[in-house]
Write a structure and sequence with these properties.
The chain has a 7-stranded mixed β-sheet, with helices on both faces. A 4-stranded mixed β-sheet has the order 5-9-11-12. The protein contains 11 helices and 14 strands. The protein has 315 residues and is of the alpha/beta class. It is globular. Mean pLDDT is 89; it is low at 1-20. It has 2 domains: 11-226, 2-enoyl-CoA Hydratase, Chain A, domain 1 (Alpha-Beta Complex), CATH 3.90.226; 230-308, Lyase 2-enoyl-coa Hydratase, Chain  A, domain 2 (Orthogonal Bundle). A hairpin with a 6-residue loop joins β1 (17-18) and β2.
């Protein structure tokens, strides 16, 4: 099930590819866009360990598929993700029997963090289409997305303190960098749920649209990327912005800019970008990302105290 992204035309006409491998998420590719859908609508897409593993596998797949230019992450039904599945009752957050997904410093890893770090390491730009409530891990899961667009009925909640736990998903790193420390502190210390307008005012999302227009708005942004930009330029620019968040000086950015601009300027995509503009036609970019990956630091590799888990859990 997909939240409206493929409803405007018949799937056969779009050349949609689907797989039946996943049970808790949907995965579809159409026109260069992979739509990854949290698909437990009867549970408001509550997060499970199985869902986390499937999300990691889905982002492995989007990275490996040259036909995918953009990834959209959304939820089925009326929620994005209402948080962790609380079906385990009071023992929901007890990790004493965990560890199959790896450990860090000997402690079972936070599965939400595994997912978030995998999304952050994506080679393709990620758009979070927040169609409804995004609470707990549902809120932190949106933070590594490059673009967050919310329906006007969406609600957000970093509710961890109200459940007697701490924020997950490396959100103590991501959230203050996105919205600033004061706003982040208010949201995490109160644990209150807030609406899309407050999320927009705080910089958590880049725009809010009527619920019925969310799919069209997201498709429009994705199409701008797919149809008009160089995959290599987008991938490297994404890496540049993330890697410069903690740079001590603008000189570090200047050094990196100089190196990347020089390399890309000698490549086929720069020539095609200028030529297609002068000829007033759509560009056809042919550069290969693998030829340029060494120019920009990638997402940091796991430190030595991280012990990987089973297949589909490394991030």
């Amino acid at each position: 099930m997909t939240y409206g992204f493929l409803r405007s035309r018949r799937r056969e006409e779009l050349g949609v590819t689907t797989t039946a491998v996943f049970t808790e998420i949907g995965y579809e590719v159409s026109d260069g866009v992979a739509t990854v859908t949290l698909d437990r609508p009867d549970r408001l897409n509550a997060f499970t360990t199985a869902m986390g593993r499937e999300l990691v596998a889905a982002f492995d797949r989007t990275d490996a598929d040259d036909a995918v230019r953009v990834v959209v992450l959304t939820g089925a039904g009326r929620a994005f993700c209402a948080g962790a599945d609380l079906g385990g009752g009071a023992a929901t957050f007890d990790d004493s029997a965990a560890g199959a997904d790896g450990t860090i410093d000997g402690i079972p890893r936070d599965v939400g963090g595994i997912v978030v770090l995998r999304i952050a390491a994506s080679r393709k730009p990620v758009i979070a289409a927040v169609n409804g409530v995004a609470a707990g891990v549902g809120a932190t899961m949106t933070l590594p997305a490059d673009i967050r667009i919310a329906a006007d009925g969406a609600r957000f909640g970093f509710v961890f303190a109200r459940r007697g736990i701490a924020p997950d998903g490396a959100s103590s790193w991501f959230l203050p960098r996105i919205v600033g420390i004061s706003r982040a502190m208010e949201w995490v210390t109160t644990g209150r749920v807030f609406g899309a307008d407050e999320a927009l005012a705080g910089g958590l999302v880049s725009r809010v649209v009527p619920t019925g227009e969310l799919s069209e708005a997201v498709r429009g942004v994705a199409a701008e990327i797919v149809e008009h930009t160089s995959p290599v330029s987008v991938a490297l620019t994404r890496r540049m912005l993330w890697s410069m968040l903690d740079a001590p000086s603008p000189w570090d950015a200047h050094r990196l800019d100089t190196r990347v601009i020089s390399a890309l300027g000698r490549g086929p995509d720069a020539a095609e970008g200028v030529t297609s503009f002068l000829e007033k036609r759509p560009p056809h970019f042919t550069a290969r990302l693998e030829d340029y990956l060494g120019l920009v630091p990638g997402w940091p590799e796991p430190p030595d105290d991280v012990v990987p888990g089973g297949p589909g859990t490394d991030a």
